[in-house]
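General statements about sequence and structure are easier to judge against a single worked case. For one protein, we set the task of working out the structure tokens from the amino acid sequence alone. The sequence in question and its structure tokens are set out directly beneath this paragraph.
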Amino acid sequence: MTRALLVCPEPLGHRQPAGIGIRFLEMAKVLLADGHEVTLLSRDAGAVDGCRVDAITPETLQRYTADADVAVVQGHVANDLFAHGSAIPTVVDLYDPFIIENLHYYESRGAEVFTHDHATLMQSLLRGDLFLCASSAQRLFYLGALLAAGRVNPIAFETDPHLDALIRIAPFGVPPGSADVSSAADSRADVLFGGIYDWYDPLLAIDAVAIARQSLPEITLTFTTHPNPSLTPQGKLAEAIAYVREKNYDFVRFEPWIAYEERAAFYSRFGAALLTFPQSIETDLSMRTRVYDYLWGGLPIVTSSAPGTDELLTKYGAGVVVRSMSANDFAEALVQALRDKNMRDGARQFVDDHQWQRTLQPLVDFVRAPRIDPQKDAFAATLHVPEHPRSFFDRIKRRIGGSS
């Protein structure tokens, strides 16, 4: 049995996790099922069945790393782990390419976001022992970054030519199919978009549904508000709300984020899901959490083109990829998805092939035999990386006027 410490950057106490929170909850379940002892730290010490839980503070990081065999961390909270915790084998989960996603925030938040993201990523690449990513495209992207950091080097290559000991693909997964996901939604024309992040295009989705209503007048469109708005800029959400008011559209709904345990019943209200977003490097590298979860919920998906999503929907016949930014094209695809009942069968097959215990096998392998990379510092790049990028606690101090 290994003592595993999971350090989750999201709060979990509200029981409404977003993608990263879902991933950590499922990591905990998979590791518990494999016979390990799991401690889960989060922003608010949210309770998780079977785990010892606590809040993330300098003191808890110091205390729990002293008692753990391995740590798993994601995102900016890695700064806190490396600053305050003991040096133990550490898995850095890179499934969420935050440095690319947050390029969208330069206009509203200035250069500080990128500067902090870059320092955080470089610190993590220098300090981690195993890195997880979500796709082949992500793996190549992060291998380039690891090369710049000196972690891809002649010694690493000589002992492991494919570098599997350094970085592994561990995509998002889904739990077993739920009895709450029924065929009742086959006759429904309600469309789910979900949460709005600033790299989406909600206005295109609204226009598409407005056009589709000419063929199916009963179609509605539902967005969900984010459970952690203080951690996620809300610019596009505000645009969508203003646009709906301007157009006086009564078929668009904004509803609260659904609790994780209740989402199966929520998904059964809808006949299809819709995703619209512009093309960018973020599109190329991200693996949309909701694509996996909506397919788990039995929803066929109409979406803008993105490499990982395109492959999944094509393979399983579980949706329609629209390769334009035309509201008319999306409207036509929505009508097709709502009328084609075979797409739900493809979604069910996807669920069978993407169980969490399968997608997280690289994590399980490492936790069973954790190790510190002996070549970690062999070719450490002489980069200007702060010894300790500002932690979450330092940033809070700055916001309230304290010293940092």
Q: What stands out?
A: The chain has a mean pLDDT of 89. The CA atoms of residues 187 and 320 lie 18 Å apart. The two ends are 40 Å apart (CA to CA). The longest strand covers residues 37-42.
